[in-house]
Structures are given as C-alpha cells and as structure tokens.
User: What shape does this take?
Amino acid sequence: MIAFQLVYTAINEGLKMLLPVRGVLTLSLVLPLCAFDKSPATDVLVGTDTRKLESYKFTKKALTPGVYVAETGGAKTTLTIRKLSEGTFDVTRTFAEPGERPRTKTYRRVQRGADGGYRLARSLEIRIPEGGGILVLELASGVESIPDSLWVWFASNVGGGKK
Assistant: This one.
C-alpha cells in the first residue's frame, strides 16, 4: 500500500503542498490561496463616501512606484510603494490623525498575481482601477480607523486619478 502524507506550509501567495510517495517521488505544487476571493469587503471608502467595489473595472497595468494618498475626514493615509524587482514591491502605509502620532506599517515583498492584482498572503491586496489611483484592502492594519471590511481608494500623489 502506498502511503500519502500531506504537509502544508504557508508561503507568500498560498500553500505549498508536498506529496511524498514512499520516499521515491515528490510532487511539489503551489496552490494560490487568496483570502480576498472570499472577503466580505464589497465597498470602497472614497474620502468620507463609499462606493460598491463592483462599480470599478480593473486593469492589469503594472503598479507604479511612488506615493499615494487617501484622506478620510481629518485623517491622512499615505502609501509609499517601492519597486524591488519586476512584479515585487515593498509598501509602507502611514496613517496620521490630527494631534496623534503617525502609525506606520510596512508590507514586504508584495507580489503581482495572475489576475493583475498585487497581494501579500492574507494581509494586503492592491488593485488598479481604470481611471487612476489604486484600491487597497488591509486585513490586519493594526489601526482601528482602517477597517478590514472596506477597500480604500488612494489617489496618486502625481496626477491624482478619478474616484
């Protein structure tokens, strides 16, 4: 009888499944696992308003490094996107409310997926809508004012973009 053993190891964009067969043959498969496919986040925060995510059409354009800004009420959130290599970026988010100390979080090695979106495991996704700007979903921002149930629209600091 051939024994199969399944071992799951979390990796950046999914799960890696190893299937050793009596130590003779090892198959290695990378299965994309996207927490965002089942995300309850169906709305986009644009300033102090919300829009339905389904109202956006997305492009497969490459993410442009630079600075992106979202202003919600008196708070300002800034994303600094730095290209590491083709399809891989570091993203630093700074959230600042008047009178409070800014809170910063860096997502390292955010990678482009086959669908044209950019993601880091189960914590961050970036989509590029037609018309400019970017949509960002943070599932574990560490900031109460950045809900994991809403995408946030960011304007490019150079040239803006349509909401």
Remarks:
- The two ends are 60 Å apart (CA to CA).
